[in-house]
Design goal:
CATH class of the largest domain: Alpha Beta
Strand content: 5-15%
Radius of gyration: 24 Å
Number of strands: 18
Number of helices: 17
Helix content: 25-40%
CATH topology of the largest domain: UDP-N-acetylmuramoyl-L-alanine:D-glutamate ligase
Shape: globular
CATH superfamily of the largest domain: Mur-like, catalytic domain
């Protein structure tokens, strides 16, 4: 036992916690748009590769490299699942993680085990620390994770390494790969504009930075401005850039994609194109992958229909309230955080709640469709009598994003499907961005700045006023209409007719559970969105 403040004993940190503390030391508190640090120099990555003896190993990897604004994580997930089902040993590097940093490193479809993670982590960390200098400082957080991924995949001798770009493309840490087998660009939109540029053309230029001379590349149908830039960059590098069309659902032989939502057919089509090209360019002609796409190999179908990804179009019943006597509380989780993805998320949520509500009297999911909302919750809630459904929004987003772009897309898309939120709850994330693991939880007595959540609430209330057709919507001061509590120890800091700000996520979840228990004639359907960090925090609590 170690000694804590005031002489009290506290448990000694576990080996994993010690690793997370070391990893947290690499997180800079500067804005990602701030370039005033030596550690941001892209050329440093090649110094790190030499220190870790990776400079000769990475060129031997058979890499699939994917960038994009929306759907790149889903595309990588489909791609990994397909090639794993074709019999290859796969390595998948994605970001961010939701609960455990090990989620970022998947071997054969599973998160890397703690024992291997710690061994590779300390091997890389200690060697970099030993060689660190003023000219070659320790790598920053994401760069270290990318280097760690390369070390893991090299040591584990994967057949294929699927790399999701963290941010942008040209200067992303994954872009040290100079000769991938094939590259992909998923859907492009407006995100991280403070870093990548304020037009689709500028953003496309950054994403196209992963193109390598003579290496084939695929993208999905893009807006004209973005497609023109992609084509120009491809032409300059003699890249054969092709457009992968959305997957035809008929090719799945009556089965459904493992990832839910119409937009996933776009990502699945891109994944199929990437896999076919990878197989051809690596000499695996034994797997029949026809370019005409008149049919799909059985391994492809299995990969596409069994793929899974936490925090994207995911439905999770609250384990504390899963019986008829306790009320019903369902969380619909999606880490959408751009205007375009917010619209897709809203469509998915609206259709999912309608499907569930149509089946609310029954508990006999048909056809083994484990991906439908009814199948996911039928066993838990099927015996309940008809209930009123109530939709609640649980929201937070980073302050670099514009809620005046995000929230209207969400509200208007839901409204177009007849779905209206009874209440919107705004909360800070539990985890702090400059810590990882259990260290990411702030002290229970820490003061939380809720100015951003209050700003989100003002945007929402003004939108509600506009939706109700109030002429005085913008002029009306919601600060007067809301009941404000200045004491941060109170559960709800500020409650208005249509929204509330809570000082913490656990307090908001307690409010939801209390309401579900007190109103057993209602089914509470909570959309959690705006931030993958928020989604991860909710999953951590609800699955505990």
């Amino acid at each position: 036992m170690a000694e804590g403040e005031g002489g009290s004993a506290r448990p000694a940190a576990s080996p994993f916690d010690e690793a997370m503390e070391a990893l947290s030391s690499l997180i800079t508190k500067r804005s990602r748009a701030d370039k005033s640090n030596k550690g941001d120099r892209f050329d440093l990555l090649f110094d790190y590769l030499k220190i870790l003896d990776l400079d000769q190993q990475i060129p031997q990897m058979k890499v699939i490299h994917v960038a994009g604004t929306k759907g790149k994580g889903s595309t990588c997930t489909f791609t990994e699942s397909i090639l794993r089902n074709c019999g290859f040993r796969t390595g998948l590097f994605t970001s961010p993680h939701l609960i455990d940093v090990r989620e970022r490193f998947r071997l054969d479809g599973e998160d890397i085990c703690e024992e291997k993670f710690l061994a590779y982590f300390w091997w890389c960390y200690d060697r970099l620390k030993e060689k660190a200098s003023e000219d070659v400082p320790m790598p920053t957080y994401f760069r270290f994770l990318a280097l760690l991924a390369f070390k893991i995949f090299a040591a584990e001798q994967v057949d294929v390494a699927i790399l999701e770009v963290g941010l942008g493309g040209k200067f992303d840490a994954t872009n040290v790969v100079e000769a991938p087998i094939v590259c992909g660009i998923s859907s492009l939109g407006f995100d991280h504009m403070e870093i990548l540029g304020d037009t689709l053309g500028k953003i496309a230029g950054e994403k196209a930075g992963i193109f390598k001379r003579g290496v084939p590349a695929f993208t999905v149908p893009q807006p004209d401005e973005a497609m023109q830039v992609l084509e120009e960059k491809a032409s300059q590098l003699d890249v054969n850039l092709q457009v992968a069309l959305p997957l035809d659902a008929n090719l799945l032989n009556g089965l459904k994609l493992g990832l839910v939502g119409e937009h996933q057919f776009l990502n699945a089509g891109l994944a199929v194109a990437l896999c076919c090209t990878w197989l051809q360019r690596t000499g695996h002609q034994d797997i029949n992958c026809l370019q005409q796409m008149s049919n799909l190999p059985e391994q492809f179908i299995k990969g596409l229909t069994s793929a899974s990804l936490q925090g994207r179009a995911q439905i999770v019943p609250d384990r504390l309230l899963n019986s008829e006597s306790s009320g019903e509380l369902l969380f619909y989780l999606d880490g959408a955080h751009s205007p375009e993805s917010m619209e897709v998320c809203a469509k998915w949520f609206s259709l999912a709640v309608k499907e569930e509500n149509q089946h609310q009297n029954w508990c006999n999911p048909q056809g083994g469709d484990s991906k439908s909302a009814n199948a996911l919750i039928g066993n838990n809630f099927g015996k309940s009598s008809a209930k009123i459904s109530t939709q609640i929004l649980l929201f937070n987003c980073m302050s670099v994003r514009d809620p005046k772009l995000l929230l209207p897309r969400l509200m208007n898309t839901c409204a177009s499907y007849g779905v209206h939120f009874k209440k919107a709850l705004f909360v800070p994330n539990i985890s702090v961005y400059y810590k990882v693991g259990s260290n990411a939880l702030p002290p229970s007595n820490s003061q939380v700045d809720l100015s951003w959540q209050l700003a989100l609430q003002r945007v929402w209330e003004n939108l509600i006023q506009g939706e109700k057709g109030s002429i005085e919507g913008e002029a009306k001061n919601i600060d007067i209409a809301g009941d404000e509590v200045r004491d941060d120890t109170e559960p709800c800091i500020k409650s208005c007719e249509n929204s509330a700000v809570f000082s913490s996520l656990p307090l908001a979840l307690k409010w939801l559970r209390d309401n579900a228990q007190q109103n057993r004639s209602e089914r509470f359907q909570v959309l959690v969105t705006g931030s993958l960090h928020l989604v991860g925090d909710v999953l951590r609590i609800v699955k505990r």
